[in-house]
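User: Please predict structures.

Assistant: First:
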Amino acid sequence: MPTVDPLILDTCSRLFTEQCSPAVVNAAEEGDWPVELWTAIEAAGLSLAWVPEKYGGVDGSLTDGFAISRAAAAHAVPVPLAETLLAGWLLAEAGLDCPIGPMSVSTTVLTLDSEQRLSGSAKRIPFAAKSEYLAVLACTQRDNLCAVLVPCSDLNINPHPNLAGEMAADVTFTNSIPIAVINCRPDQSTRLSQMGAVMRSQQIAGGLAHVLEQCIEYAGDRQQFGRPIGRFQAIQHNLAMLAGEAAAASSAADAAVRAMEQHGLDDPRTRIAVASAKVRSGEAAGAGAAIAHQVHGAMGYTHEYSLQHYTRRLWSWRDDFGSESVWAVQLGNQVAAALISKQKWS
């Protein structure tokens, strides 16, 4: 990860360790909203890290926000912290004040009529069933793209848990009345997809780092045939492969953040780095989760043991904001365009 304020990392580590036990995660999946956890997150200013002070946030850097989401993923935090960060970024980019409370975000472009009422639908919005607001994009009759803040209380929300056990939802907007509407960049949907892809890549890196630590600890403690299973060559081989997948995901995710900071979201080098990060982290999520369950055997699938909190999230995150196949096409297009541009000017 590029340089992050140590105070932010210390705050995240302390807060998530104290407030996010496996019991809290299990309770959240059963429908109990972790009030104390979310209150502590907001009190620390973590949820609006990407929002400038003038819009109600704390004016953190891109690296700070991604580091927060990565730390949250390493603790399987069962609240829409990453989604609220993305929603805050989208609203702040357009110049809108950000409300207090959990938010989610969608890359689906809706329709905004002449009376500024929203219509359309969006599927699989993460944490939509537990959010107070949604930040979305909508196209006007004049083909202007707008950033829109809408309260969830006015929406038709059909909740269904995703693989991570989080209350995602299909949402229908029927003449919904937004709180705020403002014109934004015509390419903001693409930029939001990029931010979401890197967010999930960072979360996968954080989740895999924890899974690796958990597997090493388990292999050292679990006894078989009179010795720890970590002394068996097959287990050592699996742990080495898992370490490689975790390192690859981390490296790819961090490279995307560095490209964003150095070149901006619109640079072709950033687009290549973002696509590469989502493809490689998605592959690592699948391979890493499989290895982790091989090391743990049946224990890894039990409700009481926390490994499944992380592997289910890895499986879910690899599909959010575009799967590997979607971003592989993007990567191929970007590389081809770069080669053509190089040949043109050579």
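Second:
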Amino acid sequence: MADQEIHYLELLEVGRRIQSCEISSQAVTRALLERIDSVDQRLHSFATRMESLAMAEARSADEEIAAGHVRGPLHGVPIAVKDLLWTAGVPTAHGMSIHRAYCPTEDATVVRRLRSAGAVILGKLQQTESAFVDHHPQVVPPVNPWSDALWTGVSSSGSGVATAAGLCYGSLGSDTGGSIRHPCAANGVTGIKPTWGRVSRHGCFELAASLDHIGPMARSVADVAAMLGVIAGVDPLDPTASARAVPDYLGTMTQGLEGVRVGIDGHWTLDLVDPATRDMLQSVCETLIGLGASIRDVVFPDVGPVVQDWLPLCAVECAVAHRATFPARRDDYGPTLQALLDLGHSMRATDHQQLLLRRADFSGRVRAVFGQVDLLLVPVCATAGLTLDRVRDMASDNSLITLGRYTFPFDISGNPALTLPGGITKDGTPLGFQLVAPHFDEAQLLQAGWAFQRATAWHRRHPAL
């Protein structure tokens, strides 16, 4: 098979072909490595490439499959992981100059589980510094494959770009304030931020421990379901990982939307977004109704206070995460991360306690909303087709926090959120939306997303490269 025939296949499809010996994992891996060599010179999505290790894993996969031992749907499939996840013997920089030479001696739990499932890891994907909002000054930021002028979303910028550009069949990202959801929406791919605790964080560099979530990004809901089923679950190395049984996400994914109640806060969701985003969301509603869901009006709790609280909450926890090197090695940090850490060090204990109390109050109010509905339909961003210039203007106006209006609240509350491509602007740039569920109801999210993608083809639109 020629490269152009395979790089935009969905993960499960290429996996089926590998596992049926229609094509070898080595051939697919080699094709993607060649595509990375060609395309990523412009896109800069990879922080570290693992060519020799990937080819060795692919060769092992082919040998096992030929012997009749298929580990599962990821066996032999090339993927990539965000550069805050430990990979034994491979640099894991966390987007920081201070960790450029750091080589862990063990894999993160999620990396180990992917390898145990037979996945082939192509490399480490670029990210913002410490997974905050800006790339380190010494890092070349990834480029959106749809247009050089477009924002990539942060902090899982490399994950969004590489997945959209056909440089891997799936990737892992992390989400503390929207860092899976924004890159998915900006690059036109599918991703899930699981419930906090659904996926182990052992071996993951922290931004803010109680806000950090690890989740998969891919080109379809089915692919995301397959990856989540592998990485989720209890972990003795991470006491915060939930002991709840992991559902069969792939097995239950096709159950449909009949009778599912989808809530929408008309003011928060529709009145505060631009026309292109509003039109997309209204079209999504029509599709969901056609699939058997009902749309219910809800009043979502006021997000204003928690959107404002997210930054100081993140800052305090980030200061804890960096206590060994900041402020001692301040000059090794970029200015944006320096400012966040300074904020964290300036917080008083009484002010921090007030943040925690407001967080608990908001989380309780979100739980109450899910007493009325099964899912929520929410934008990812209020503005379609955000450009780099527009995001820079927002940063200079100190209004960058408005990017978190629809993402911060669900990191605060810990609810799972699935991001899906939902349209294309007149300028040809992708539009995304999110469905949100009660804690640990990822299965219903994936059912809804699968049904939506069966009825639409937005997730099959790809950038012209």
